[in-house]
Amino acid sequence: MEEIKEIIPLFCPRRKATVRRFWIVVCSLVFLSTVLMAQNSLTGTVVDVSGAVIAGASVMVRNTHGAVEKLTQSDGHGFFSLSGLPAGNYRLVVSNTGFQIKEMSVTLGTTGESAALRITLDVSIVSTTVEVQGREDSLIGVAESASQGTVGAKELETRPVLRSGEVLETIPGLIITQHAGGGKANQYFLRGFNLDHGTDFAVFLDGMPLNLPSHAHGEGYSDMNTVIPEFVQRVNYEKGPYYPVTGNYSSAGSANIEFVKTLPQNFFQVEGGMYGYARAVFGVSQKLGSGNLLYGGEASHDDGPWSHPDNYNKFNGLLTYSRGDYTHGVSITAHGYHGKWNSSDQIPENALPLVGHFGTLNTTDGGNSQRYSLQAEWHRQSTNSATTIMGYGFFYDLDLFSDFTYYLDDPVKGDQFEQQDRRWVAGFAAAHTILGQWLGRKVENTFGLQIRNDWVHNGLYRSHNRVRTDKNDSNACDDDPIPECDTNPDLVAVLPAATTLNKFSDTMLGFYVENKIQWAEKIRSVLAFRGDEAIYSNTNLNPPYVATVLPDAPVIDYAQLNSGSASQFLPSPKGSLILGPWSNTEFYVQGGFSFHSNDVRGATQRMEPISPDYPFPTPATRISPLVQTKGAEVGVRTLAVPHLQGTLSIWYLRSDSELQQSGDTGSTVPSASPSDRYGVEWANYYTPLQHLAFDFDFADSKALFTTMDPDDAAPNSPGGRYVPEAVGVVISSGVTVQNYKGFWGSLRLRAFGPRNLTSDAIYQSNSTILLNAELGYHINKQWRIATQLFNLLNRHDHDIDYAYESRITPTAASAFTDVFHPVEPFQVRFTLVRSFGGK
Question: What is the pTM of this model?
Answer without folding.
Answer: 0.85
